[in-house]
Description:
The chain has 348 residues and is α/β, with parallel strands linked by helices. It is built from six helices and 20 strands. The strands form five sheets. Strands 1, 2, 13, 16, 17, 18, 19 and 20 form an eight-stranded mixed β-sheet that branches. The protein has a six-stranded mixed β-sheet with strand order 8-5-7-6-10-9, with no helix packed on it.
Amino acid sequence: MGGILSRVVPRDEAISLVLEAAGSLDLREGALAEELPPERAWGLLSFGDLVSPEDVPPAPRSLRDGVALRSEDVAGASPSSPAYLELVGEVPMGVMPSFSLRRGQACRIWTGGFLPEGADAVAMEEEISLEGGWVEVRKALSPFENVSASGEDVRAGSPLLARGSLVRPFAAGAFAALGLREVGLFAVPCCVISTGDELVPAGEDPPPGRIRDSNGPMLEAVLSWAGLRVLRRLMVEDCRSSLEEAVRECLSLCRLVFVSGGSSAGARDLTASVLDDLGPPGLLVHGLAVRPGKPTLVGLNERGLVFGLPGHPLSCLVALLTFALPVVRSLLAGRRVEPPILRGRVLG
């Protein structure tokens, strides 16, 4: 390796390289899989591709209080030249209409009510007047105006979640609306290793010259937020044999390991050497052409994938969010998955 970051590669190239080399690696091996009800089905990853079992809404529904009608019956209607329709009934909430509308007819309807057969629009309260058995409509309407069409929110058979997608809490409403009693989710097991002679556990008071391990807790929190579960979090000194032992111990537990520190070009930065000796193919990436996050490493063997992240907390976080997690999500989904990217120009 020559003691320098001699193989720095662009981020996109590095992701492609890792995905090609690790494409057969099943990160779901040993996954903590669960079938959860909608209100608890969040913070984990979708076990498979999830599609909608039905249309939502199942039939056209009103978006306003007013009257349901045939739009062609109010063509050209205006305040100065209203249309008059026969009022033939009301649609109760929570039931499907038992009648249909014929030409020149309208019926009372409330927000969320299902339209009777023949109706294709809803005139709002502000646009109508009721008297006796008639309704005055003072506005022309287009087909499906103030109406949510069948399947407008979700079509039956349409994709909801791709395999490996992180499920957010607000998905609970969609799961419940679709009648899903349980959702198959899982957490990817992983381990975290913090390296450095200068580190003490986060809860201790460091003596002069030492600092608390902040990367370990941060990595565990972010990985948990991303749908992974940290099985073990270790802290090791700058000793090659200790780091190698820790990495091999973690790979005996799971397929995914995150190491912080020891990734740059210093003589005592040992992570690259350990990853290169893991076994074929060994070290895949030795530096990214990004800043912060340049001293990022990736090693691979038949047991799993190891990310060597920078020791600087900001660099560590950037490398995790913009490189390591996109790689993990792409491997889980079986396709390239990129995080949302906002591009801008730095002024001044």
